[in-house]
Design a protein that fits this description.
Blueprint: H1 10-17, E1 26-30, E2 33-37, H2 42-58, E3 65-69, E4 87-91, E5 110-114, H3 121-133, E6 138-143, E7 148-154, E8 160-165, E9 170-172, E10 181-183, H4 184-187
Parallel strand pairs: 5-6
Antiparallel strand pairs: 1-2, 3-4, 4-5, 6-7, 7-8, 9-10
Length: about 190
């Protein structure tokens, strides 16, 4: 199927991914622009799985919230943007009361993006800004090539701030997931 240049919304995207010829394709929307992504590689999938695993180990009964992988999230007031973080955590008080067959009409509290070889940090930081501007509180950008991470959050003025975490550092759940800590040495032994 040839993709035409036009402004898409989440309903258009659902129809697109529901077609058999697009079954193995990954898409996101940013301001109505359709972005096709390649499937994650082995390293990428392993790192995302490890982070999800640590979320589940920390909160096995999901009493604090719901971790997800590769789930589509969109701002409830913006149907032209849909992002699919590699891993996400949504606090129980913000999680939808029911499981949607389609995408969730909110941004997760924590969004995790694992850098793939085709991703630039600039692209991932732009996505981090979208997550944060629409309700996420933390974005972790995992940088495998440097065995490091960037933690993005908004400051009191609404500007995105980035903190670099080196290979010997840890990711914290902060106020979203109090007590959660993931040492980067668990991701990069």
């Amino acid at each position: 199927m040839e993709l035409q240049e036009r402004v898409y919304d989440i309903d258009d995207l659902w129809q697109l991914v529901s077609q058999a010829e697009n079954a193995d394709k990954y898409f996101e929307l940013i301001d109505g622009e359709l972005i096709e992504m390649s499937p994650p590689g082995w390293e990428h999938g392993t790192l995302a799985g490890e982070i999800y695993h640590h979320f589940r180990l920390f909160d096995p009964k999901r009493s604090l919230g719901n971790p997800t992988v590769d789930t589509g999230f969109y701002p409830a007031d913006d149907r032209s943007t849909l992002l699919s973080p590699d891993v996400a955590f949504t606090r129980i008080e913000r999680a939808p009361e029911r499981i949607f067959k389609k995408w969730a009409p909110l941004m997760p509290d924590i969004a995790v993006e694992v850098q793939s070889p085709h991703d630039t940090l600039r692209q991932l930081r732009a996505k981090a800004s979208i997550y944060l501007q629409h309700g996420a509180q933390l974005v972790w950008i995992i940088v495998p090539s440097k065995q490091s991470a960037e933690v993005c959050r908004l400051d009191e003025n609404g500007d995105m701030q980035m903190e670099s975490i080196g290979a010997d550092g840890s990711l914290s759940g902060e106020d979203i997931l109090p007590g959660f800590e993931l040492k980067l040495t668990r991701l990069f032994p």
